[in-house]
What we know:
The protein has helices spanning about 5-15, 30-40, 50, 100-110, 115-130, 145-150, 170, 175-180, and strands spanning about 55-60, 65-75, 80-90, 95-100, 115, 135-145, 160-165. By secondary structure, it is of the alpha+beta class.
Amino acid sequence: xxxxxxARLTRELLMEIGENPDREGLLKxxxxxxxxxxxxxxxxxxxxxxxxxxxxxxxxxxxMILCRNIEVHSLCEHHMLPFFGSCTIGYxxxxxxxxxxxxxxxxxxFSRRLQIQERLTSQIARAVKDSVDAEGVGVIIEARHMCxxxxxxxxQHSSMTTSxxxxxxxxxxxxxxxxxxxxxx
Length: 185
């Protein structure tokens, strides 16, 4: 990402909306916005294999493993406004487990780009399943979308919940129920 170009475009945007980019409060805003966009879209420039960094370990575990309340922040691809909430990931290991922090890093890898929540949920589930060759995976994201709350219909207390279930979580109702129960659903 060319941060200097993003800063120039931000300066132009400020002028276009009727602001003075040379006033004290906005002097450094174009550079700060460019830094923010570099961070918020870093998922485009990261590699999943590097994110996981070999943190997949042999294990005798073949039970359900669940991590709840992983913070998720992303940008809606339709309005480029934030959506944020929490993600729950569960999987049944076959013979491998993934380092716990890597689940959060997988969430960040896919959320730090322009997204829709539905796709984000599926991408996380597929990445976890593929990383450990899991028997099954379930992912739930509950998020608040600023495009719903601060513009448009202005529904302040709305949230959206999406889920993606793969493998045994999809095929076996009792496995899906166990996941939903452990996830607090």
